[in-house]
Amino acid sequence: MHNYATESDALVPLNRAEDTYRRLKEDLFNFRLLPGDHFSENEIAARMEVSRTPVREALFRLQREGYVSVLPRMGWQVRPLDFEKFDQIYEVRILLEESSLQRLSRKDKVSSIGALMQTWCCPPDLRESNAKTVWMLDEDFHAGLVAAGGNPEIWRIHHDVMERLRIIRRLDFTKPQRVSATYEEHAAILEQIHRGRIGEAQRLLRSHIDASRLEVRKITLSMLYEARLEKSNT
Hints:
InterPro entries: GntR_C, TF_FadR/GntR_C, Tscrpt_reg_HTH_GntR, WH-like_DNA-bd_sf, WH_DNA-bd_sf. By secondary structure, the protein is mostly helical. The protein folds into 2 domains: 75 residues, Winged helix-like DNA-binding domain superfamily/Winged helix DNA-binding domain (Arc Repressor Mutant, subunit A, Orthogonal Bundle); 146 residues, GntR ligand-binding domain-like (Four Helix Bundle (Hemerythrin (Met), subunit A), Up-down Bundle). Strand 4 and strand 5 form a beta hairpin. Helix 4 runs antiparallel to helix 9, helix 5 packs antiparallel against helix 8 and helix 6 runs parallel beside helix 8. The radius of gyration is 20 Å and the shape is elongated. The N and C termini lie far apart (46 Å).
């Protein structure tokens, strides 16, 4: 028996709606759809060779996530990147991770961060270099620190916060020097936790996240400039 989602009295297989959502989100993340761009459901449906129903369902989902807006009688628009809002979200993220480190001070630190130390405290020749792999490992690192704190609600909120930052955070490892810096900074944070110096670990963590925040802003603006230049030349 198949599961189906309904929209406008039509039946849409859930996998088709999910695939349309995933492809649209990739278009946003890769700046094929640029901030400020206007488009219609018909245009997207024609390009993706699907009906309007899964497109509409995907767009409403992206609207709830804050990526697009619907404009009366004008179709849809990609929402501009709001770096002031991103800065505010980053501050929430830092508070959540610092709080988790404080909770970690009352736990068995070795068992809590053992797996993370195996990944990040390794010789340079054993480090990952693929940008996407390092990004996923970095996500696991920060989620792992929060999980080690032992509060599932903090982990849930942190997960939601990271999802809101993902459109820019995934660009952090497109530069080789950022990969190297991340390994070194993660290892330093873990070393301080292992030694029980939670205050120093918190200081290093905040500095690490701030450096990443500034770097992804520069990379994002550069990629947006290049994407707009390429679009204007086509």
